[in-house]
Amino acid sequence: MTNQPTPAILRWTVLATIALVVLLATASALMTRSKQYPQARACSFNLKQIQRAKLAWASMTNPPGDSPREEDLFGPAHELKNRPVCPSGGLYTIGKVSEKPTCSIAEHNR
Asked: Exposed/middle/buried for 83, CB within 10 Å: 0-12, 13-18, 19+?
């Protein structure tokens, strides 16, 4: 009598291994998403702050469709003391007053 596993045991072992791999991959994806969501929300908040600063600048200067410079929006004499930074490492584009500011990470521009 040999101690070799039966085909049924081998099948269950393979199925259990596959199930474990799928479970680990799913958990990993969920953990990554759970970290990205708060960062995307913080970035969206930053973009709204930049838009508010642009509108405040425009109401004070009455520019004809101009784009404000960073020094027009950020600093000790302005509503935003520091230039906001995307928590995911994206880069902000301020743009014209009539346009919303954007982040280089497309998912954050919603």
From this structure: middle
